[in-house]
Amino acid sequence: MRLIVGIGNPGTKYDRTRHNVGFEAIDRLARRIAPGEVARSRFQAATIESMSGDDRIMLLKPLTFVNRSGQAVSEAVRFYKLSPEEDLLVIVDDTALPCGRIRVRQSGGTGGHNGLRDIGNHLGCDTWARIRIGIDAPGDIPLSSYVLGTFRPDQQDAVEQGIEQAVEAASCWINRGTVAAMNAFNADREQISSPEEIN
Asked: Quick check: is 113 catalytic?
């Protein structure tokens, strides 16, 4: 089993908000790899399972709200006895990246994101792959108001492209692994040849 998690908040009032780009990426990935499948409620999350070659893939959207994302993720990781380093990918919004820019990493810090922090706290490590989708910095707007707000018209095209790129990068991760996804999708196209070189 390989687990792909999109971070976001449940409920229609959070649809299309900046904090929910991870949910949107999971929804689009589900339409691609598991068309017609209906989400099930498991692990305090909405989940969809599919096969990719010989690998079973679970797509997971925590229903615990962003700040408690780790509860759902850790339940699934423990149940399936997954190795976070090998089997887990998290898709998340990032205010440190320009809107629509994506960044693939094998490990790293939280960047101030409470969802990533909670996942790390529950798993006891940060050595799991993540795809960050840029949503721009908030500027003078309080961070909580900014991430829970919807995208401005001038951001719409960029974020649409970013979400689509994140779906492509997740598909690459499924089929070819983190290094290949980093080489193919990171904006500066840094060439990584071995796990030891991954930051």
From this structure: no
